[in-house]
């Protein structure tokens, strides 16, 4: 218990939590002013993000139903936009991803974390990117203004990035830096930036003409801090979803209700993404590892102390 108590009493944690509080307030204020409606997250569901990379199962049986801890609210975000009264929604969504222990050393991974998960209806990729640009700039401006003493105590200097944030194509960066282009670009850049077009989950929209071109993106923190947000335009047509699931060998039985909704034409045309809160606070406060900004960190491969 000693490690936990030391962490809880650490004066550095005071500054980090103040910065986090300011950043969260800036996000909520920005969303409110931008007419993005907030809804409450779900933590257990029969269907959740497949997460197309290795991880352990995190599900329970409850009254004869298999319920999974949320890996992301992607499907719930899409369906939430069936409501005709608003076209923008966000959740502060706790996610549990029991990823492999090797990720414990990246500095960016917790197996339990929170993301601000945003989805917009009938909007383009560019419109989504502009919303996120505005959110990031307002977080920086507010934190710099409100947390001067905390940033000084942490030895952290920040600047409000100029908008629009720069946008790179993944292929352009791969040609310049090779396969490790994400880390290389993150080390090189001085402000947050976007990279577009990654081959990823079945729900990320693939161009109907340019096969292998994905209308998705990530935001990266600069100075080597790496990935901040990922998202994309979404597949919403049943045939495309089934084709993409088949290509990825996704177990369709695990997505029965989602597929039923898609077959009924009930998935709205949306675009969105999720930005990791702990990663953002790590960057704002200049910490080495996401564990350093969490009161009770859950690091892949490590035993939880409390
Ligand atoms: N939240 C992300 C999205 O909206 C998905 C994820 O967390 N992997 O695409």
Question: Please, could you describe this protein's structure?
Answer:
The chain is α+β, with helices and mostly antiparallel strands and 306 residues long. The protein has a single domain, classed as Bira Bifunctional Protein, Domain 2 (BirA Bifunctional Protein, domain 2, 2-Layer Sandwich), CATH 3.30.930.10. Helix content is 36%, strand content 20%. The protein contains ten helices and eleven strands. It has helices at 2-9, 11-33, 74-80, 125-146, 148-154, 170-177, 181-188, 238-247, 256-263, 277-285; strands at residues 37-38, 44-45, 59-62, 65-69, 88-96, 112-121, 166-169, 193-196, 216-221, 226-233, 270-276. It has an eight-stranded mixed β-sheet, with helices on both faces. Helix 2 (11-33) crosses helix 4, helix 2 packs across helix 10 (277-285) and helix 6 crosses helix 7 (181-188). Asparagine binds at residues 49, 72, 74, 115, 117, 230-232, 272-274.
Question: Could you write a compact summary of the structure shown?
Answer:
36% of the residues lie in helices and 20% in strands. It has ten helices and eleven strands. The strands form two sheets. Strands 1-5-6-11-10-9-8-7 form an eight-stranded mixed sheet, sandwiched between helices.
What's the structural blueprint in terms of helices and strands?
Blueprint: H1 2-9, H2 11-33, E1 37-38, E2 44-45, E3 59-62, E4 65-69, H3 74-80, E5 88-96, E6 112-121, H4 125-146, H5 148-154, E7 166-169, H6 170-177, H7 181-188, E8 193-196, E9 216-221, E10 226-233, H8 238-247, H9 256-263, E11 270-276, H10 277-285
Parallel strand pairs: 1-5, 7-8
Antiparallel strand pairs: 2-4, 3-4, 5-6, 6-11, 8-9, 9-10, 10-11
């Amino acid at each position: 218990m000693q490690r936990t108590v030391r962490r809880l009493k650490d004066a550095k944690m005071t500054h980090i939590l103040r910065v986090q509080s300011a950043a969260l307030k800036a996000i909520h204020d920005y969303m409110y002013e931008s007419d993005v409606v907030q809804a409450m997250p779900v933590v257990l569901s029969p269907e959740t993000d497949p997460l197309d990379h290795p991880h352990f199962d995190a599900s329970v049986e409850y009254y004869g139903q298999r319920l999974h801890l949320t890996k992301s609210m992607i499907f719930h975000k899409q369906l939430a936009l069936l409501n005709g009264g608003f076209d923008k929604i966000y959740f502060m969504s706790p996610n549990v991803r029991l990823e492999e222990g090797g990720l414990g050393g990246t500095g960016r991974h917790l197996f339990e974390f929170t993301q601000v998960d945003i989805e917009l209806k009938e909007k383009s990729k560019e419109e989504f990117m502009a919303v996120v640009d505005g959110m990031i700039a307002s977080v920086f401006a507010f934190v710099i203004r409100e947390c001067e003493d905390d940033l000084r105590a942490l030895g952290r200097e920040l600047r409000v990035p100029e908008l629009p944030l720069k946008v790179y194509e993944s292929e352009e960066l791969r040609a310049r830096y090779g396969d490790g282009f994400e880390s290389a670009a993150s080390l090189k850049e001085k402000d947050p930036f976007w990279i577009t077009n990654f081959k990823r989950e079945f729900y990320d929209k693939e161009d109907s003409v340019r096969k292998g071109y994905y209308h998705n993106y990530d935001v990266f923190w600069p100075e080597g801090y790496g990935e901040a947000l990922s998202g994309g335009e979404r597949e919403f047509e049943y045939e495309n979803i089934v084709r993409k699931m088949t290509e990825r060998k996704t177990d369709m039985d695990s997505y029965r209700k989602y597929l039923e909704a898609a077959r009924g034409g009930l998935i709205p045309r949306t675009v969105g993404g999720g930005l990791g809160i702990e990663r953002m606070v790590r960057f704002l406060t200049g910490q080495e590892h996401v564990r350093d900004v969490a009161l009770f960190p859950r690091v892949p491969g490590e035993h939880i102390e409390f």
